[in-house]
Design a protein that fits this description.
Layout: E1 3-4, H1 5-15, E2 37-42, E3 50-53, E4 60-64, E5 69-78, E6 81-88, E7 91-96, E8 100-102
Antiparallel strand pairs: 1-8, 2-5, 2-8, 3-4, 5-6, 6-7
Length: 103
């Protein structure tokens, strides 16, 4: 049974196992990151690759095919859109959370 990353995040917040930073700046990451999912996959309704961005809503740095396995680290909201921080090459990238499924 698959759970969406948003459901996992909501459960973590309700159970008090996830802490968000006090800043709303997308590039600010302070404190311990307790949310890590390494069994996530890119989902979609078509074969259009998912854009990977440098920051939430930032410039495109690459793409992932539907079905690609990814490791999710964090979720942030920018301008009403949820973004998931993922392992990307030798660092991190950001993808729209609606196209990520974990579990």
């Amino acid at each position: 049974m698959k759970f969406s990353i948003v459901a996992v995040f909501a459960a973590a917040v309700l159970l008090g196992t996830f802490t968000m930073t006090s800043s709303t700046a997308a590039s600010t990451t302070t404190g311990a990151m307790l949310f890590v999912q390494d069994d996530c996959v890119v989902i979609g309704n078509n074969d259009v690759p998912l854009r990977v961005r440098s920051t939430p809503g930032g410039r495109v740095i690459g793409s992932l095919n539907v079905g690609s396995n990814i490791k999710a680290w964090d979720i942030q909201t920018k301008n009403g859109v949820d973004w998931t921080k993922i392992s990307w090459k030798r660092g991190y990238g950001w993808v729209a959370t609606e196209f990520v499924s974990c579990g």
